Amino acid sequence: MSLTAKDKETVKAFWAKVAPKADDIGQDALSRMLVVYPQTKTYFSHWKDLSPGSAPVKKHGATVMGGVADAVAKIDDLTAGLLSLSELHAFTLRVDPANFKILAHNILVVCAIKLPNDFTPEVHVAVDKFLGALARALSEKYR
Amino acid sequence: MVEWSEQERSIITSIFSNLDYNDVGPKALSRCLIVYPWTQRYFANFGNLYNAEAIKTNPNIQAHGTKVLHGLDRAVKNMDNIKGTYAELSVLHSEKLHVDPDNFKLLADCLTIVIAAKMGSGFTPEIQATFQKFLAVVVSALGKQYH
């Protein structure tokens, strides 16, 4: 299920619309993940406040979306482009890769909420494929 | 036994009482067939599913989407025994329709996204959690009778 040229075009075009709301989307997606999938809170025991919209959640949401935007720019070779991020997740953060799917789902939900007219089924499938490819690139260095 | 708080019950009944079944049902089903194209295997005799436009305008898919969404009504009315309520439907999906139960989650995810788009910021994290919990129970019940 690799990204076709059309998928990449679709993702880039959609992400141009995401960009101005990126921080907001990141914060909302992360907040939802922590509420809807409470097991994900185990990765953030060092935060004082895990509630939706809290300072650490806002900051981290922006960080994550910055990473996704970077991936969009490197969409032609995600494995090479995300090498150091993969090493970070594999050796330092050691996030179980199952969680990438969980966060991806919440990003999709927020895309539907914030951009309901742009997040058509055709865009949905391309973004879903892209987030899957991103997750695979991020898991590259795990073992 | 699945436990439901008063708040969770009222969230679910509220979502379904404000639902336009004829809009959300078709949207959820067609989104599922577009985003997860392998699910089209169950609709070989529904006519033209060659591209997203064809799927979105296919009258058989529209009718079926509405039907599937109304299928959730019984779960809403019997939240304390969704497993029992869906025993027959589970047998139907297994023995007659031969649907891979993994597909139930795919449709559930698409339904979540369609509802999120409709409700906008009203689809809060708490409401999302409750709705996903409800759908997870439905999905589990529908897979229960497979053997």
TrEMBL record, chain A:
Belongs to the globin family. This is Hemoglobin subunit alpha-1-like. CDD domains: Hb-alpha-like. SUPFAM superfamilies: Globin-like (SSF46458). GO terms for cellular component: blood microparticle; haptoglobin-hemoglobin complex; hemoglobin complex. Signal peptide: none annotated. PROSITE patterns: GLOBIN. GO terms for biological process: hydrogen peroxide catabolic process. It holds the Pfam family Globin. It comes from Fundulus heteroclitus (Killifish). Residues 2-143 form the Globin domain. Keywords: Heme, Iron, Metal-binding, Oxygen transport, Transport. Involved in oxygen transport from gills to the various peripheral tissues. One of its GO terms (molecular function) is oxygen carrier activity. The keyword Metal-binding applies.
Automatic annotation (TrEMBL), chain B:
InterPro entries: Globin, Globin-like_sf, Globin/Proto, Hemoglobin_b, Hemoglobin_oxygen_transport. It comes from the Eukaryota. Transmembrane segments: none annotated. One of its GO terms (cellular component) is hemoglobin complex. Keywords: Heme, Iron, Metal-binding, Oxygen transport, Transport. Pfam families: Globin. The keyword DNA-binding does not apply. The keyword Heme applies. GO terms for molecular function: haptoglobin binding; heme binding; metal ion binding; organic acid binding; oxygen binding; oxygen carrier activity; peroxidase activity. Belongs to the globin family. This is Hemoglobin beta embryonic-3. The lineage of its organism: Eukaryota, Metazoa, Chordata, Craniata, Vertebrata.
